[in-house]
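In the design runs reported in the main text, the only information available to the sequence generator was the tokenized backbone. The following block is the verbatim input for one such run; it is reproduced so that readers can re-run the procedure and compare outputs position by position.
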């Protein structure tokens, strides 16, 4: 499995933020968009926090078999066997064999989805100048950590330090990496404290779990368009 999935040049894609066991949200999105043939890009973190974590990931895995247009990106909560997470109620509920089985499945998940002018990941950006280099990322290395764990802050600077093991990446880092990759917009999830829009309308943070005490949100985009800003996406709340 390559670390980056290239999206089609035509049709539509739907981006879904962290669901964290919110199986109702996952079902609603799949029911609404899969039969239309839309690509559905889930941005990771399907398990933990919510009480229906196992049901949620099992539903998504079975739905992916039925609808190959569903893409499940890796989130940090899927990689707990490599880098422990908290809370970890999903992982704590499994026996050793079950944990190893899920871990092997999750290791096959790609890190990003790439489209016309935009990129989608779980959390942050690796310090790599071209997309082809992303296949060199290995589980547990520094760039892997940035993709799955990094937070963005709309402040001057590159690396702004870390908190609880999560590196904080600044405005200068975002612009440098995105411009090198020739991408205008980043779609991500991961950080419930991040504003919806950052970096002059170039970084969109989505959440699709009811656990965060907010309306669920997804983003719809026309894949035939060259995306220039977040305004090219339709943001949908439910």
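Verbatim output:
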């Amino acid at each position: 499995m390559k670390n980056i999935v290239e999206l089609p040049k035509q049709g539509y894609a739907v981006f879904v933020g962290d669901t964290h066991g919110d199986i109702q949200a996952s079902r609603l999105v799949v029911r609404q968009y899969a039969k239309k043939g839309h690509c559905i890009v889930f941005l990771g973190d399907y398990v933990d926090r919510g009480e229906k974590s196992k049901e949620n990931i099992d539903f998504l895995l079975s739905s992916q078999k039925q609808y190959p247009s569903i893409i499940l990106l890796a989130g940090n909560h899927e990689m707990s066997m490599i880098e422990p997470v908290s809370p970890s109620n999903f992982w704590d509920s499994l026996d050793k064999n079950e944990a190893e089985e899920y871990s092997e499945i999750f290791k096959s998940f790609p890190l990003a989805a790439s489209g016309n002018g935009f990129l989608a990941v779980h959390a942050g950006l690796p310090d790599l100048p071209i997309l082809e280099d992303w296949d060199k990322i290995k589980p547990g290395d520094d760039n892997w950590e940035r993709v799955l764990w990094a937070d963005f802050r709309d402040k001057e600077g590159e690396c702004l330090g870390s908190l609880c093991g999560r590196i904080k990446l600044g405005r200068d880092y975002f612009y440098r990496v995105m411009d090198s990759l020739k991408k205008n917009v980043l779609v991500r999830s991961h950080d419930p404290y991040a504003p919806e829009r950052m970096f002059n309308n170039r970084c969109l943070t989505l959440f699709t779990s009811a656990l965060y005490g907010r309306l669920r949100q997804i983003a719809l985009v026309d894949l035939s368009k060259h995306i220039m800003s977040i305004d090219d996406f339709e943001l949908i709340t439910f």
